[in-house]
Amino acid sequence: MNTYFISGIGTEVGKTLISAIVVEALQADYWKPIQAGDLQNSDTHKVKNLVSNSTSHFFENAYALQTPMSPHAAAEIDNIRIDLANIKRPKINNNLVIEGAGGLLVPLNDEDCIIDLMQAEDKIILVSRHYLGSINHTLLSIEALQQRGFIQIGIIFSGDEHPTTESIILQKTNAKFLGRIPELKTINKERVATEAAKLRNSLMEF
């Protein structure tokens, strides 16, 4: 069984949608350790509502914070401190998709960031979305992963295709290209299942 840790080059790049697609493709379980804000319609709710299979299980957040801010700041408002010792992975006999919050270096407390939740054996899926500066953000993110010793790094591009952007990122990083999720006008279970079928082989070979 494998763990797929999904992170992004920033916020609002499509991590949650892609998490749903990967969960559906692999019939994996899903866990978002830290949710900040929107607790009534959390990312766990969104992924669960987009997945069709009956195998996937959805685990509760280790931390559910009230304010939509960086986890360290949201935790301070809630008068708590995020402690990595309290973030324990579910013990399961299935593939697991873990969704991070924001980018790799989003702080959890004064010492730890999202990247510190990752483990050496994880398959890291980085979501990259084209915008001015996204090449730099993507290359910096992959460099940060490589400096930590992660070797299983894949990229999913989110949004409209930009060949020159995508090719230079793949050329400079040697990260595995897992696929692209186009700009979706309609997001529902049927479309997620369609996109999951397209990614299934590359994810299983990753």
UniProtKB/TrEMBL annotation:
Its EC number is 6.3.3.3. This is ATP-dependent dethiobiotin synthetase BioD. Gene3D superfamilies: P-loop containing nucleotide triphosphate hydrolases. It comes from Psychroflexus planctonicus. InterPro entries: DTB_synth_BioD, P-loop_NTPase. Belongs to the dethiobiotin synthetase family. ATP binds at E12, V13, G14, K15, T16, L17, D43, E99, G100, A101, G102, P182, E183, L184. It is an enzyme of class 6 (ligase). Pfam families: AAA_26. Pathway: Cofactor biosynthesis; biotin biosynthesis; biotin from 7,8-diaminononanoate: step 1/2. It comes from the Bacteria. Catalyzes a mechanistically unusual reaction, the ATP-dependent insertion of CO2 between the N7 and N8 nitrogen atoms of 7,8-diaminopelargonic acid (DAPA, also called 7,8-diammoniononanoate) to form a ureido ring. NCBIfam families: bioD. It catalyses: (7R,8S)-7,8-diammoniononanoate + CO2 + ATP = (4R,5S)-dethiobiotin + ADP + phosphate + 3 H(+); (7R,8S)-8-amino-7-(carboxyamino)nonanoate + ATP = (4R,5S)-dethiobiotin + ADP + phosphate + H(+). Transmembrane segments: none annotated. Homodimer. The gene is bioD. Its cofactor is Mg(2+). It is found in: Cytoplasm. Mg(2+) binds at T16, D43, E99. The active site is at K32. Keywords: ATP-binding, Biotin biosynthesis, Cytoplasm, Ligase, Magnesium, Metal-binding, Nucleotide-binding. Its main location: cytoplasm. PANTHER family: ATP-DEPENDENT DETHIOBIOTIN SYNTHETASE BIOD 2, DETHIOBIOTIN SYNTHETASE. SUPFAM superfamilies: P-loop containing nucleoside triphosphate hydrolases.
